[in-house]
Amino acid sequence: MIRKIWIMVLFAVIAAALVCFLIQGRNMDTGKPVVKIGLVLPLTGNSAHLGQAIKGAAEVAVAHANRNSDNRYDYKIVAEDSMLQMPIATRVTSKMISTDHIDALISFSAEVVNVVSSIAEKNKIIHFGISVDKSGATGKYNFINWTMPESSTAKMTEQIKAKGFKNVAVVSFNQSGALANSEMLDKKLRAVGIKSTLYRFNGDIRNFKTDIQKMQDAKTELYVLRLFDPQMSIFIKQLRETGDKSTISSIEMFNAIADPSIIESLWFVDTATAENDITREIMKYNKSEVTWGLGQVYDNVMMIVRAFEIAPDKVGAIDVLIDTKEFDGTVGRLKQDKDGIFHSVATIKRIENGKQVIVK
């Protein structure tokens, strides 16, 4: 009987210790406090290959961070599926804050980022958005680390002018992130004397044939696409079915295409991209050829880690990030402006054998 009582007491002590560690947010293995980084990503649906790749990049970054035994904290990823839908993003973000007690957030795609940013600001949670819509960085706690339209559209305009195109159709998803690039590109092309027509399409459109005919009647020489899949693939297939062999390009969105074979040999403008061991490690970890956003997400995690390690406490991490004017990331030197946006330089790529190759 005495032995049973002692066993019960022992279990009670262990249970109490476990509860104490959980409440304090500590790692049972190291005894260090834990910093939880929440991810709001499309883990299912048409963009799942992007969300899963980005999740892998964050996991590799956390694994690298946790190797440093001198760190004051351990770092942990908590991921939720946004399905690229704002109501779902709202629900899972609120859940991670109230239930998982996350300390920082990373989210993907302009409209989701804008939803998450308002929740993060209200709850004083550090948030990095993967977005070209500057409004996602509004407030003290929100940041964006991405190649912004100023760089991407300048690079695209430069390429279009150098290749001698005179008549361009900019074909865009009618969404704030897509239009941030599309509208700026349209204006820049016009400013250098290149004819440009901007076509906007809602996300439910699947038949582009009438609009394609209008573009062809206007003698379009180059189609610059800012569409998510399946719209991207549908548009390209319907254009090619007419026998139109005009050049097709994109700013960033070739990354979102499900079947790279239909864009084989085409060039496009992409975000800053790292060709280094870290990117290769992430791709191997993911078992995927997706490169879009891997370096930026890895850098986001590392900036978050740096902030928490330098700050005197968790609350002070935000001030470290605000004071980080430059950061040497995997995609190059990132420079933060007064609005909390970390800028990087766009790259030119070509699709070769289904893989993205940086054009030197």
Topology of this structure?
Elements: H1 2-24, E1 34-41, H2 48-66, E2 74-81, H3 86-100, E3 104-108, H4 110-123, E4 126-130, E5 142-145, H5 149-162, E6 167-173, H6 176-191, E7 195-201, H7 209-217, E8 222-226, H8 231-241, E9 247-250, E10 267-270, H9 277-286, H10 294-310, H11 317-322, E11 326-329, E12 332-336, E13 341-343, E14 347-352, E15 355-358
Parallel strand pairs: 1-2, 1-3, 3-4, 4-5, 5-13, 6-7, 6-8, 8-9
Antiparallel strand pairs: 10-14, 11-12, 12-13, 14-15
Q: Could you name the key traits of this structure?
A:
360 residues; alpha/beta; Rossmann fold; 2 domains
What does this molecule look like?
With 360 residues, this protein is α/β, with parallel strands linked by helices. Helices cover 43% and strands 22% of the residues. Strands 2-1-3-4-5-13-12-11 form an eight-stranded mixed sheet, with helices on both faces. A four-stranded parallel sheet has the order 7-6-8-9, covered by helices on one side. It has a three-stranded antiparallel sheet with strand order 10-14-15. Strand 1, helix 2 (48-66) and strand 2 form a beta-alpha-beta unit. Helix 2 crosses helix 9 (277-286) and helix 3 runs parallel beside helix 4 (110-123).
